[in-house]
Automatic annotation (TrEMBL):
Keyword Membrane listed: yes
Coiled coil segments of this chain: none
Residues that span the membrane, as ranges: 80-104
Acidic residues composition bias: residue spans: 1-17
Keyword field: Membrane, Transmembrane, Transmembrane helix
Superkingdom to which the source organism belongs: Bacteria
The protein, known as: DUF5819 family protein
Low complexity composition bias: residue spans: 20-58
Region described as Disordered: 1-61
A Pfam family matched in the record: DUF5819
Length: 274
């Protein structure tokens, strides 16, 4: 209560604002209607760097590209060589698959016309004993046997019995984790070579006849000497080779019958080769 005029002091100033500068409730800020008052300055604008004369423009940042990989990372000559090598591999793969298909497929016009080229590509590295769509695996076991005649250390002659050379090779390979493929097939291959280059009477057919006979005799001589044929100090002078053909028994569920007994083909005596 003011002592001068007897009115209550409610904290409203002469300009209509409450204490602290807040406009009085229900009133209007006199500064908004007073034309003589200068408007309140707004926030100071941020100067534009581009408008300043002394501003240095920021350099352009180049875009980083991913490093090239594969053939793109090589120079042009190396890329050309790589492309040619890749094309050669693709052509060779396609050629091999084509020859392999013609070899295992049933006989047709193309395979018959190109038989010489197909056989030259497939044999002997990729020899097969079956045909696609018409399997014809080997249905008999072929074992090579040999016997020898010669002289003992005291000069007396001897004649051995038959040695099963194939069985000895099989026994030597039994139990080996990595058996030799060559050792498994060398005797059978030697016999097949002899049989294909001689007729049924033992006469050579073609240019490989004498070579195949000498090769088979040499193998038999080496195996018999290794087996100790004739005893210590014996000298082998003549060798005789024969093949035993045993039909493979059919499985129980097939209903097929065993095709006969084992057959033999015995060759003439030949001079021992070492």
């Amino acid at each position: 209560m003011s002592a001068d005029d007897g009115t209550a002091d409610d904290g409203i100033g002469d300009d209509g604002t409450e204490a602290g500068g807040t406009p009085a409730a229900g009133g209007q800020d006199p500064r908004a209607t007073d034309p003589t008052r200068a408007p309140a300055p707004d926030a100071a604008p941020v100067p534009d760097a581009a408008s300043e004369p002394d501003a240095v423009p920021a350099p352009d940042t180049p875009l980083l590209s991913a490093p090239a990989t594969g053939l793109a990372a090589l120079s042009l000559p190396f890329r050309v060589v790589g492309a040619l090598a890749l094309a050669a591999v693709l052509v060779l793969t396609g050629l091999h698959l084509s020859f392999l298909f013609l070899h295992v497929a049933p006989a047709n016009t193309v395979s018959t016309r190109q038989a010489k080229a197909v056989n030259a590509w497939i044999y002997p590295e990729f020899e097969q004993n079956w045909k696609l769509f018409a399997p014809n695996p080997i249905q008999q076991n072929t074992t090579v046997q040999a016997r020898a005649s010669g002289l003992h250390a005291d000069g007396t002659s001897f004649l051995t019995g038959w040695y099963d050379l194939s069985a000895r090779d099989g026994a030597a390979l039994h139990g080996e984790p990595l058996p030799s493929h060559t050792r498994q097939n060398v005797l059978r291959r030697a016999w097949d070579l002899y049989a294909s280059s001689h007729d049924d009477d033992g006469r050579p057919v073609g240019t490989r006849g004498e070579l195949s006979a000498a090769y088979l005799t040499r193998l038999a001589t080496q195996r018999l000497e290794r087996a100790g044929a004739g005893g210590p100090g014996a000298e082998l002078t003549r060798i005789r080779v024969r093949a035993r053909f045993t039909p493979v028994p059919p499985p129980p569920w097939s209903g097929e019958k065993l095709a006969g007994r084992p057959a033999y083909r015995t060759l003439d005596w030949a001079e021992a080769h070492r």
